[in-house]
Amino acid sequence: MKPQQESATRTTPLKAYLVILVAIVATSSAAILIRYALDETMPPLLIAAARLAVATVALTPLAIRGYRDQMARLSKTEWLLILMSGICLALHFTAWVSSLQYTTVLVSVVIVSTGPIWVAILEVLFLKIRLSRLVVAGLLTALAGGALIGIPLGGDALQVAQGAEDLSATVTGGILAWIGALSVSVYMLIGRKLRATLPVIPYVWLVYGAASICALAIMIATATPVTGFRAQGYLILLAMGLVPQLVGHSSLNYLLEYFPAAIVSMFSQLEPIGSAILALVLFRELPPDQQIVGSLIIVIGVILASRGEIRQSEPGKQNAT
After folding, report:
1. How far is the C-alpha of 137 from the C-alpha of 145, rounded, in Å?
2. What are the residue boundaries of the structural domains of the chain, listed by start?
3. Helices of type H across 195-313
4. Which of 51, 61, 299, 309 has the smallest set of CB atoms within 10 Å of its CB?
C-alpha cells in the first residue's frame, strides 16, 4: 500500500497542479460568459436554464450507462432532497446571473463566493453545530466588506457605483448576489448529505436536471423568450454549460483524488480573482477603490470562515466555541 501511495505522490503532483489551473480558469470564465450573454440581450432565466440544461445533457450518457440501478434505489426522502437541491441551484444561477446586470464582475463573484460562511450558519440553525471563533471572525469580516461595498463613504460617495451606473444598481446587484450565495449554500448543505451515499456523477446529473426543469417552468410561467437571438448568443450558452459547469466543476471533483476536500474548497476561492482579472482584460472593468477594498475584505472573511470550518469538522471539534 505504501509503495503505491509513494508512487502516486511522485507521479501526480504536476498533473494535479495543472488541473488546479484549469479549474480556476474554467470557473472564472462563468461570470465573463454571463456578461457576454447579457450583452446579447438574453434574459437571465434563459442563461441560467441553458447552463444547467447543457451540463445535464452532456452528463446523461455517463449517468444512465453507469448508475441507473443505483439511482433506481433512491428513497423518497432522497428524491425530495434532490428536488430541493435543484430548486436552490436554479435560484442560485438566476439570482447570480441577474446580479451581473447591476454590478461589477468583481463584486458579484466575490459576494456569491461567500457560500462557506452561510453553510456554517445553516449548520448552526439546522444541525445545532456551534460556530468556531474563526467562523465568527470570518462572518463579521465578510459583513464588514459587504457594508463597505454597499454604503457610500466620503463626499463623492455617489461615485462608488461608477462600475454599475449608480449606487442603487450596485446595492441591487449585491442583494441578488447574496441571494445567490444563500441558495447555493443550501444546495451545498444538501449535497453533503446526499454525496455520502451517491457518487458525484449521478448526483450532479439529477440535481442539474431538477434545476433545469425548475428554471424551465419559471421561464414558461414568465413567458421568457427563448428564440430570436443571434447565433453567437446560443454559442455562448453552450460554452457556459461546457466550460465553467462541466470542465470547471468536474476538475474540482477530480482534484479530490489528490487533495483533501478542504484544500479543494480553498482553491475555489481563487475564482473571484480570476474573474476580476478576466473582466479587467476583456471589459476594461476596474471597479472603484472602495469596491476593490470591500471585495478583498470579503475574500479574507471567506478564507477565515473556511479555515474555521476545516478545524470545526475535525473529530472531536464539532462543538468548538
Report:
1. 12
2. 14-312
3. 200-221, 231-240, 249-254, 261-268, 271-283, 289-312
4. 61
